[in-house]
């Protein structure tokens, strides 16, 4: 590993060769343990009730969610010509005491039938929900099954056609519950010549030619892609199996696999071991926005993949968004930030797409801006992933590097929980920092805009031969609270200061033994700011 500027904040990654070898063996042991039978669960066992079978699911780790879905099994069929689907969904629900389940479902789908492994269940459809009344209440684990049919849509757009099927977790094409950390098994019957892919690893082809994907490591949500012109290529990425799916990939698939290797290894070592069963990447023509699920990303085939920094952009959401979920799209900002951290540590420019979106944000009309904390699915990508990729770094400047990155690692030591609120995430950083971060989070997540600083330098030689320096720093609009690096440059000398800026205008006086010819603000480009015209 090269000694990028962030290596010191992950101390275990700067080591001698012997230490690296020992750590490599340690990480291998961890990964093997996490992938061993004690840490996985067969769906047939999950649905059962014996103590041995329940112990398998318990071994997945502490999960602080009640009620929650612990396993999902879907038998999926569709009619491309009619744009319709029909599926049977078996859910294993875990709860201390739940009499009523409210499951989110595409309003265009009809629940034909529901039943349960114990007692009785009655269902009613209420707009975007199906409400299940259970008797007796769930106390422990119980299997609940539904048969659904209809024509799923995203707004006015059909999600099933003769061109293919593209379903994201946000489409609620199967019944979803916010608290979900579930192993999964998805079987898809497709027309001849079609290819299908879902999260997890492929299971041997079924007698009727269906595709089947099983995830033994739990996921928060499922995506599904099927199409007539897709090819599937498998490769080994570090210790994970990757599947690259798309039309006419050719040698590009091998190149993508090479680009994925280093960021996969870096994030597994910096954050936590890769949390899912392999990585399925689908590249589709005409896709408008990224789709992510546990162990699966669907992107446009025009997404730039020119180096590992671009691959890091695709992988980072598996940790921020899938392993740790947020209660809003703002979590995508942390994923983009993590990809930028990887690029910086490797002394590379940020990923092509992130760089484009940062520039687009700084050129954006203020009327189109949205505070990251209030972002929704309509929020422009330049806000979510452009400004968003830099906003956590502005918090880091307040917290300090070492404490900030330790707080990031604290996030991955927490038990699996429902989607984290921004306030909850702020609390993790405050606990590690030992200080309130209300102002910092308010500056970068609760308000629109970005930092703008203008400087005015005046110099005057004193009778003693020194130079008096008057430096005025002005912020446009409501001021931000940030530390600002300032460098005064003379002919052959320079002087550096760090200024804590929190007012609209600050005038500072210095005495230097040389005459500054110019002043440089933020020479290391640590601040996300608009430069004066």
Distance between the termini: 39 Å
Helix-strand makeup class: alpha+beta
Mean pLDDT: 88
| Total DSSP helices | 12
Q: What characteristics describe this protein?
A:
eight-stranded mixed beta sheet; 26 strands; single chain; five-stranded mixed beta sheet; 533 residues; 25% helix; alpha+beta
Question: What does this protein structure show overall?
Answer:
- It is a single chain.
- Helix 5 packs antiparallel against helix 6 and helix 10 crosses helix 11.
- The chain is 25% helix and 35% strand.
- It is α+β, with helices and mostly antiparallel strands and 533 residues long.
- The chain starts with 16 loop residues before the first helix and ends with a strand.
In summary, what is this structure?
The protein is an alpha+beta fold and 533 residues long.
Write the layout of secondary structure elements.
Blueprint: H1 17-35, H2 43-46, H3 51-58, E1 68-79, E2 84-104, E3 109-116, E4 120-126, E5 129-150, E6 153-154, E7 157-158, E8 160-161, E9 164-167, E10 180-189, E11 195-197, E12 201-202, E13 211-219, E14 224-227, E15 231-237, E16 240-246, H4 252-270, E17 279-284, E18 291-293, E19 296-300, H5 308-315, H6 331-345, H7 352-362, H8 381-387, H9 391-399, H10 401-413, H11 422-433, H12 438-445, E20 451-461, E21 467-475, E22 482-489, E23 494-501, E24 505-512, E25 518-521, E26 529-530
Parallel strand pairs: 1-10, 16-17, 17-19, 20-26
Antiparallel strand pairs: 1-2, 2-5, 3-5, 4-5, 6-7, 8-9, 9-14, 10-13, 11-14, 12-13, 15-16, 18-19, 20-21, 21-24, 22-23, 22-25
Helix pairs in contact: 4-5, 5-6, 6-8, 7-8, 9-10, 9-12, 10-11
